[in-house]
Amino acid sequence: MRRTLKHLPMVEANPIEGVLTNTIGSRNVAEAARAFGASLVVMISTDKAVNPTSVLGATKRLAESFCQALDLYEARGRTSYGQGTRYVTVRFGNVLGSTGSVVPLFARQLAAGGRLTVTDPEVARFFMTVREAVELVLQASALSPAAETTETRGKIFVLDMGEPVKIVDLARQMIRLAGRRPDRDIEIEFIGLRPGEKLQEELFHPAEPLMPTANPGIRLAAPRTADYAMLVRSIDELEVSARQRREDRVLDLLELLVPEYRRSASRPSAAAASGG
Questions:
Q1: Domain locations in the chain?
Q2: How many CB atoms lie within 10 A of CB 255?
Q3: pTM as predicted
Q4: Which of 10, 85, 106, 114 has its C-alpha lying 20 to 30 A from 171's C-alpha?
Q5: Confidence class of residue 1 from pLDDT cuts 50, 70 and 90?
Q6: Whole-number mean pLDDT of the chain?
Q7: Region 223-248: what's the mean pLDDT?
């Protein structure tokens, strides 16, 4: 298992580290698994990879693309002597209670007796529980070999998470559960969207055809795929620029490799992102 950088403001302020961890790190693990004959690799992605407006989303979308391309490449190269490594990608929404989740933040703010902070009254997110997140990974692992066809290679598994939830509604509900009254006992302060943050996240790109699976709660998305050899060369160039600490070049390459990525007009400093 490999950890990724998933804290949006921190990655926005440190794009080189985001690239080296989320994209280059994913590439390294995927290729190592192939070299040692692993049968299955599950890549954990995020809804922020769909039409990304953040470095986090763009680096995860590029990691998705690499695993998709490698999955298709392995499928074409299979022989009677081996099935090749299978690469499965799953997209998560916000996992309730996980590190960096809004729920523990609200709980801390309530415990301190202060106001709850929400970025914008219209901001909404898809949510899943820790159990649902674990089950999605296990189901994707089990469904992939069972549905082994060329039509399922290079696809992305997504849990049906229903409708997005407004964060302000979640804040009000948590205030009520604490036995207090929203906007009277406990105020809600709107502090503005962070750099790279969206009002609404998306689970699928409009150009991603959806496919059903054996589990009605899980769907397959079919994003566009890139040629594996071409992507290897491009990610190699991205890595060189990142290790040379050429931040502007890194961001230019991200925009080139993830065409739907729209760079944030202003990015926080590293100190601001870490709360310093």
A1: 8-273
A2: 13
A3: 0.86
A4: 10
A5: very low
A6: 86
A7: 94
User: What does the buried/exposed string (b/e) look like for 82-113 if buried means 16 or more CB atoms within 10 Å of the residue's CB?
Assistant: eebbbbbbbbbbbbbeeeebbbeebeebbeee
Residues linked to residue 219 through DSSP beta bridges, in sequence order: 158, 212
Angle between helices 228-243 and 247-257 (to 10 degrees): 160
Residue 119: both structure tokens together: 């970025």
d(CA 271, CA 228): 37
CATH fold of 8-273, please?
A: Rossmann fold (3.40.50)
Q: Which residue has the higher pLDDT, 5 or 261?
A: 261
Cα pseudo-dihedral 203, 32, 225, 228, rounded to 10: 160
Beta partners for residue 127, in sequence order: 94
What amino acid positions are annotated as catalytic residues? 48
Give the number of residues written for the chain: 276
